[in-house]
Amino acid sequence: MFGADWCGDCRRAKLIFDRSGAPYRYVDLVQDPEAAEVARDISGRTNIPVILYPDRSHQVEPSNADMLRKIEELGLA
């Protein structure tokens, strides 16, 4: 997951991962600004969070329901 601590959607997405028990790696774009280019390459957009899943699919600014569906689909929880 690519995001920033100042981003409300990023904090919400981290909470969804934490509450569901799904593992994730958080890349803080403030601490690692060059990673923003990686996130942009994945999504084609500059919006965050960008979530890259193990099946190589991604979501940008997903709703809670969309995240939970994907977590369940992949059996991550």
What is the secondary structure topology, with strand pairs?
Layout: E1 2-3, H1 8-20, E2 27-28, H2 35-43, E3 50-52, E4 58-60, H3 64-73
Parallel strand pairs: 1-2
Antiparallel strand pairs: 3-4
Helix pairs in contact: 1-3
Can you offer a commentary on this structure?
The chain is α+β, with helices and mostly antiparallel strands. The protein has a single domain, classed as 3-Layer(aba) Sandwich (Glutaredoxin). The protein is built from three helices and four strands. The strands form two sheets. It has a two-stranded parallel sheet. A two-stranded antiparallel ribbon has the order 3-4. The longest helix has 13 residues. The relative contact order is 0.22.
Quick take:
The protein has three helices and four strands. The chain has 77 residues and is α+β, with helices and mostly antiparallel strands. The longest helix has 13 residues, at 8-20.
Task: Give the tags.
4 strands; 77 residues; Glutaredoxin; globular; single chain; two-stranded antiparallel sheet; Thioredoxin-like_sf; two-stranded parallel sheet; 3 helices; alpha+beta; NrdH-redoxin
SSE series = EHEHEEH
Task: Please give the CATH class.
Answer: Alpha Beta
Instruction: Tell me the count of domains.
Output: 1
Quaternary structure annotation: single chain
Write down the overall mean pLDDT.
97
CATH superfamily: Glutaredoxin
Structural class: alpha+beta
